[in-house]
Amino acid sequence: MKSIEGSRIVIPGGSAGIGFATAKLAKERGAEVVIASRTSERLAAASDQLGGVETHECSISDEASVQALFEAVGECDHIFICAAQPGVGPILEAPREAFEINMETRYWGHYNVCKHGGPRVRGNGSITFMSGLAAHTMFPGAAGPAASQGAIERLAPYMAVELSPVRVNTLLPGVIETGALAEFFGDDLESAVAGIAEALPVGRIGQPSEVAELALFVMACEFMTGSTILMDGGQLLL
Predict the structure, then answer these.
(1) Which of 6, 8, 159, 213 stands 20 to 30 A from 24 (CA)?
(2) Which pLDDT tens digit goes with each residue over 133-145?
(3) What gap in Å lies between CA 180 and CA 162, rounded to an integer?
(4) In the predicted model, what is the mean pLDDT of residues 9-34?
(5) How many CB atoms neighbour CB 185 within 10 A?
(6) Does pLDDT of 210 surpass 90?
């Protein structure tokens, strides 16, 4: 496979979690990394830790913000979209606005990035989406993320055709140890993680660095497009 060394990689949501881990690994392997985030504080903290990365403030749910991002970034080789929203709670209790924010950030955010970033991807570079297990199995209170994840999984193959030769794929990670996991489970985090780990065939939850390895593999694999790649520790086997 082609090396990512020297590639220009743009990571919306690259200031934390899986996005940050991917930015770190890509930089270590010789890529030119651009990260974007909604908050300047997160960007500054991530930049300090990563060193030598280009940063931009951007909300992918805002089309004008995404357009400005890619006008500033210019051409690139790969885009990895990591921005998302946490769970919103039971559908009969959570306000509609909470569900709308999930769709705005995930579905419309991915749409915005494809629309404004896709034409700037060089050659048969790539755009990688990130979905989640809520679209495939039941997590109480996760109807909002489930709907938005399912939506982008159906969007991706259409984008793979419409943006060709740019490749568009979707990563489907399982339970990964990130700040988003802590937001979702709150005070129940420790017991929830222990229960999930015990049930999984691999006996533990995943790490952001493992998803980062997969993300870089997908970027480098020039014969892969329109695919959804599962990395869940065997959770969907249960």
Answers:
(1) 159
(2) 999 998 878 888 8
(3) 32
(4) 97
(5) 17
(6) yes
Tokens of 49: 């830790």
- Report the distance separating Cα 164 and Cα 171, nearest Å: 19
Q: Flag whether the pTM goes above 0.85.
A: yes
204 or 86, higher pLDDT: 204
Q: Structural domains in the chain? A: 8-176+209-223 (3.40.50.720)
DSSP the chain: ----TT-EEEEETTTSHHHHHHHHHHHHTT-EEEEEES-HHHHHHHHHHH-S-EEEE--TTSHHHHHHHHHHH--EEEEE----------TTTS-HHHHHHHHIIIIIHHHHHHHHHGGGEEEEEEEEEE--GGGTS--TT-HHHHHHHHHHHHHHHHHHHHTTTSEEEEEEE-SB-SHHHHHHHGGGHHHHHHHHHHHSTTSS-B-HHHHHHHHHHHHH-TT--S-EEEESTTGGG-
